[in-house]
């Protein structure tokens, strides 16, 4: 499912306009992104938690040349599913 399909489905279920639903979805995504930029967690009880994780530096290989390269440490977004979501997917 892509974003347009999600907007259409929510619009049909709620009776809201597609424009209103898209505004809400964009607002939620912006707030989650802003929270993660500040290393905050965003938790939806039962659904899951969005958070950031630190990846340490590591050694990798260039697949074309086989040359060893250093991959620097970075911060990456992560999602941990909640119990209700896990049960729903089983």
Please explain how this structure is put together.
By secondary structure, the protein is of the alpha+beta class. It has two domains: 1-40; 41-90, Irregular (HU Protein, Chain A), CATH 4.10.520.10. The chain has helices at 3-14, 18-37, 83-89, and strands at residues 42-44, 48-55, 58-61, 68-71, 74-81. The strands form two sheets. A three-stranded antiparallel β-sheet has the order 1-2-5. Strands 3-4 form a two-stranded antiparallel sheet. Strand 3 (58-61) and strand 4 form a beta hairpin. The radius of gyration is 19 Å and the shape is elongated. 1% of the residues are buried.
What is this structure, in a nutshell?
This protein has helices at residues 3-14, 18-37, 83-89, and strands at 42-44, 48-55, 58-61, 68-71, 74-81.
SSE succession: HHEEEEEH
Looking at the structure, the CATH topology of the largest domain is: HU Protein, Chain A
Going by CATH, the architecture of the largest domain would be Irregular
Average pLDDT rating: 96
Percent of residues in helices comes to 40-55%
What is the level 1 CATH name of the largest domain? Few Secondary Structures
Strand content: 25-35%
How many runs of DSSP E, i.e. beta strands? 5
Biggest beta sheet summary: 3 strands, antiparallel
Number of helices: 3
Order of neighbouring strands in the sheet with most strands: 1-2-5
Provide the domain count. 2
Helix/strand/pairing class, anyone? Answer: alpha+beta
CATH superfamily of the largest domain: IHF-like DNA-binding proteins
Shape: elongated
Distance between the termini: 19 Å
Q: Over all CA atoms, what is the radius of gyration?
A: 19 Å
Sequence stretches where pLDDT stays below 50 over 5 or more residues: none
Protein name: DNA-binding protein HU-beta
GO molecular function: DNA binding; identical protein binding; structural constituent of chromatin
Keywords: DNA condensation, DNA-binding
Organism: Scopulibacillus darangshiensis
